[in-house]
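Long-time lurker. I teach an intro course on protein structure, and each term I like to show students one example going from raw sequence to a predicted 3D structure in token notation. This year I'd like something fresh instead of my usual example. Would anyone be willing to generate the tokens for the chain below so I can use it in lecture? Attribution to the forum is fine with me.
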Amino acid sequence: MPLEPDEFRAVMRRVAQPVTVVTVRDAAGMHGMTASSFTSIALEPPLILISVTERNATRRRIEAAGAFAVNVLGTAQQAIGAAFARPGSAKDTAFSHVAHETAVTGAPIFPECVCWLDCAVYDVHKAGSGVVFIGRVEAAGVGTAQVPLLYREREYEAYEPDQRHGADFAGSAGSGRRSQSEQLRLGRDP
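-- Reply from a regular --
Happy to contribute to a lecture. Here you go:
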């Protein structure tokens, strides 16, 4: 007997996922959506994947643009995650409340997030009610936020590193500047 959608949803809610905003710029302008279906899949070439519901407007805009960016939000960015989770055109105004710039593809990136990945569409697969976009990472960088925001059990929560890993998040906090090692332009000079 196949698993019912509500059962599957209940199981997957138990898995903590990073909160991201997937952004795109097409002929109609900038657009973004909150997503937690994101992962890296290869180092050579550097590839990531995102999954978007087939009926979501973001899917059509990514297909048209041929590019997208993934912005991993920090714990202080819950309001940004909520703004881009709104349905329809209400989320398009969210860009006026968040600092953004571009890297290579023209998709908006958030320099104050934990990290960002600017991607060209490498491949697309329909998978059930979703569409999986595989993105070739053209540029990536580390933002100024230090601790990632997670989503689990329909709530935002902070990742809390233990003492062994706490130093990993100390980095260059507070400077707002990214060093050469923090901002990577893959295949390009920083």
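Some talking points for your students: The longest helix spans residues 57-65. The radius of gyration is 16 Å.
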